[in-house]
Specification:
Elements: H1 13-19, H2 23-49, H3 53-69, H4 73-88, H5 93-123
């Protein structure tokens, strides 16, 4: 499981590239991520606490591409480790919880940064 947490894991270069200068696209994309991500994190947390590995794996799988889209490669790779561990039973619950909590901490930090960016972009619309 992951043990090298990066200092930062947020690179919006891809989002800015496909937005091609359209701040409204960036705002809408970030808003969707800000809406969906806490729900997925809560679903994973609840499933892990209930040791419902199927639901934890499914919710991790849903979160994974969003993390990639928003330039969070470490989070994406680490949530994939969680997903695989939940699917295969390859790790004990303590390891799964510890690894997921690392991802959750980083994602929550990034949600704060994304909200700041969204607010700044909205001011320009």
């Amino acid at each position: 499981m992951a043990d090298n947490i990066p200092a930062q894991d947020l690179d919006l270069a891809f989002l800015y590239e496909i937005a091609d200068g359209a701040d409204d696209f960036i705002v809408d994309s970030i808003a969707m991520f800000l809406d969906q991500t806490p729900q997925l994190l809560a679903a994973i947390t609840d499933a892990i606490n209930a040791q419902d590995w199927v639901v934890a794996a499914q919710a991790s799988h849903k979160l994974k591409p969003n993390l990639g889209f928003f330039g969070m490669p470490w989070c994406q790779a680490t949530i994939q480790e969680v997903e695989i561990a939940c699917k295969t039973g390859a790790a004990n619950p303590t390891e799964i919880i510890a690894t997921f909590n690392q991802v959750k901490t980083m994602v929550n930090k990034n949600l704060i940064e994304l909200n700041k960016i969204k607010i700044e972009k909205e001011a320009n619309l």
